[in-house]
Amino acid sequence: MSAGAERTSQITMSTVLAGYGLTKKYGPTSALAGVDVEVAERQSLAIMGPSGSGKSTLLHTLAGIIRPDGGQVLLRGERIDVLGENRLSALRRKRFGFVFQFGQLLPELPAEENVALPLMLEGIPRRKAVARARRWFAPLGLAGLEQRRPGQLSGGQAQRVAIARALAVEPDVVFADEPTGALDQATGTEVIRLLTSVTREQGASLVMVTHDADVAAHCDRVLHVRDGRISSHSQYTVA
Fold first, then answer.
1. What CATH code is assigned to 41-55+84-235?
2. Element (H, E) at 199
């Protein structure tokens, strides 16, 4: 049995996303130096570390945005790091959701169309996509804001729209890169509580990069990355 097949056979039914032996270099700098990580069903994982530690590279590698130099990434037991660009792009649209530090909403579109955009990109008719998008507004405390454009929203409201957009495709995994980094502490706490609870309720797993220990403490697990390696691991019991 090959090493890759052996790794795949060890994946449990509850493992949604896994990376094994992940390496990545930028010139002489090793951003990832043999990282192993598994994310279970409905689990939230925070990745922390100082600037340049490799935490963002790890998130982007697990999300199929960056290809590792070595190792493998598996989604529900199937390797995704070997997929061609077209298949990988389709997988990111259909099975992954993304929340970025500054939301990255399109300023010319109302909130409901920003949420519906990933659905429309998959060929769902606009009317049906918008109807599906609207279902997320009340659960995320956004009722009545469907027609507002990003410039008419507060920072916290805009991030909740971004969370709705990430979840609208009913993803296996939501990836969040410093989702509270541009928010004040009170708003950030509100957003991270919402992000962790709603992803779990929807059956999705969450992988998040953050520099804030208080934000990370809302997750089930925390990985600390330093010099491209996992330096420590903490696990919490989340009600």
1. 3.40.50.300
2. helix 185-201
**Secondary structure (DSSP) of 169-186:** T--SEEEEESTTTTS-HH
Which pLDDT tens digits describe the chain residue by residue (239 residues)?
334 444 543 445 589 999 999 999 999 999 999 999 999 999 999 999 988 899 999 999 999 999 999 999 999 999 999 999 999 999 999 999 999 887 689 999 999 999 999 999 989 999 999 999 999 999 899 999 999 999 999 999 999 999 999 999 999 999 999 999 889 999 999 999 999 999 999 999 999 999 999 999 999 999 999 999 998 776 654 43
Would you call 7 helix, strand, or coil by DSSP?
Answer: helix
pTM score, two decimals? 0.89
Domain boundaries, the chain: 41-55+84-235
